Amino acid sequence: MRRAPSKRALWDTTLTEVLAGHYEPDERGRRTPESLYGAAKMWAYLQRRGIPVARCTVERLMRINGWKGVVRRKKVRTTEPDPAASRAPDLVDRQFRVPAPNMLLVADFTYVRLASGVFVYTAFVIDAYAGRILGWECSTSKHTAFVEKAIRQAVALRAREGHPIGGAIHHSDAGSQYTAVKLGETLALSDLRPSIGSVGDAYDNALAETTIGLYKTEAIRDDSPFRRGPLTRIADVEFLTADWVGWFNQSRIMHRLGRRPPAEHEAEYYSLHAEQPAGDR
């Protein structure tokens, strides 16, 4: 007579099915964005869904089934300084922790290689408080215009949300796009204070570098759950970026935010400080 499965075995089977729903491709060959998570984030994700599972159980079942999260790749620097351009002062000094939204924006851009070998460039503007991406823009050229558009998107988004962004610091590295006179005019018109990293290494703009590293690892890589096939045109990169940014802001778990997504962390701030503009300090 066969012994009935134990409670642990039954629970393991149930959890394995839940995990397989993320890490194994569906009938269309697609996986969920949460398939990017390692054991720690997947455990936090299950907790948020109300599934009371121990972290060691998630680790054990993922190990048994060979499921792993992705590992962030190194970023290749795409901004090139203009030695003749004047620079704004460094108002940040590598201190990227701020007590409220709309105090510090960080900006950078990266490249995406199309199947043809041509490059597309994606610029981001990020609020340092929760790491929420406020603006982004793709371009086939590294001309300053596309980083200006990302800034204007960020300003317009905050205005629509009822949290005007005026007075914030806009921080970047010393790439020529960010020291251009035209970009300075865009910042002035948006009531943003320019800041340029003073040392000249990746730590000058660490938060933006980290976000771009996640973008390349989670969205651009060939086996990304956000990919729909080869990237053959700029529109493919735009669709992919829009999907990833939406998930990143609304759903991606951040350990530094108490295992919450950026938008949720921001929303909690605004609910607790409803009477005081976020940037007023």
Protein model, in words:
- With 281 residues, this protein is of the alpha/beta class.
- It has 2 domains: 7-65; 104-274, Nucleotidyltransferase, domain 5, CATH 3.30.420.
- It has helices at residues 7-23, 39-48, 55-65, 145-160, 176-179, 181-189, 206-220, 234-250, 262-272, and strands spanning 104-113, 119-127, 133-139, 169-172, 193-196.
- A hairpin with a 5-residue loop joins strand 1 (104-113) and strand 2 (119-127).
- Helix 7 crosses helix 8 (234-250).
- The N and C termini lie far apart (73 Å).
- The relative contact order is 0.15.
- The mean pLDDT is 90.
- Pfam families: HTH_21, rve.
- It comes from Nocardia fluminea.
- Involved in the transposition of the insertion sequence.
Give me the CATH superfamily of the largest domain: Ribonuclease H-like superfamily/Ribonuclease H
Bulk shape: globular
Q: Which regions are unreliable across 5 or more consecutive residues at pLDDT < 50?
A: none
The major pleated sheet works out as: 5 strands, mixed
Number of strands: 5
